[in-house]
Amino acid sequence: MALNLQDKQAIVAEVSAEVAKAQSIVVAEYRGITVGDLTTLRKNARAKGVYLRVLKNTLARRAVEGTPFAGLAEQMTGPLIYGFSADPVAAPKVLSDFAKGNDKLVLRAGSFDGKLLDKAGVQALANIPSREELLARLLGVMQAPVSGFARLLAALAEKKQAETA
C-alpha cells in the first residue's frame, strides 16, 4: 500500500521524535524472519524500552538528517529494522541477543554518541551492562562494608553476653 505525503510526514515526525530521545540506534537486516519471530523481537524490545520499527529507508534517512545519527544514512539499504533507545545499550543488547538465536537477523550497523558503529561495535556495546545492572552492582559494593560492620557488632554483642552469663 502506497503512502500519501501526509502519512509519510507523520511517520518522519514520529521517528524524528524517537531519534531526538535516542542515545543509540541499531540497524539490522531482517530478510527471511518469520512473523512469529518478529513478534517475539518486538515484545522483547517493548519490555526493554526500545522503539523498534520497520521503515522505508528514505523516510529513515529524513528522520536522522541533521542529527548526530546522520552518518548512519549510508548504511540504510535493503530491508531493515531500526531500533532506537534512550538507554545506550538497550537497543544493541535486544537486537544482538535476538541475532544470536536467529541467524536471519543480521546486524548491519549502529550509532552511539555521534559515532558510526559496525557490527562488532554494536556487539561490543551490547556486552556493556545496562544502567540498572551497574547501579545494582554499585549498591552491592556500597552495602558490603555496612553489612560487614553490622555482623561485627552482632558478634561483639554475643561475645559480651556470653562473658556476662
UniProtKB/TrEMBL annotation:
NCBIfam families: PRK00099.1-1 (NF000955). GO terms for cellular component: large ribosomal subunit. Part of the ribosomal stalk of the 50S ribosomal subunit. The N-terminus interacts with L11 and the large rRNA to form the base of the stalk. The C-terminus forms an elongated spine to which L12 dimers bind in a sequential fashion forming a multimeric L10(L12)X complex. Pfam families: Ribosomal_L10. InterPro entries: Ribosomal_uL10 (IPR001790), Ribosomal_uL10-like_sf (IPR043141), Ribosomal_uL10_bac (IPR022973), Ribosomal_uL10_bac_type (IPR047865), Ribosomal_uL10_CS_bac (IPR002363). The keyword rRNA-binding applies. Belongs to the universal ribosomal protein uL10 family. One of its GO terms (biological process) is translation. It comes from the Bacteria. Gene3D superfamilies: 3.30.70.1730, 6.10.250.290. HAMAP family: Ribosomal_uL10 (MF_00362). Forms part of the ribosomal stalk, playing a central role in the interaction of the ribosome with GTP-bound translation factors. Keywords: Ribonucleoprotein, Ribosomal protein, RNA-binding, rRNA-binding. This is Large ribosomal subunit protein uL10. The keyword Oxidoreductase does not apply. One of its GO terms (molecular function) is structural constituent of ribosome. PANTHER family: 39S RIBOSOMAL PROTEIN L10, MITOCHONDRIAL (PTHR11560).
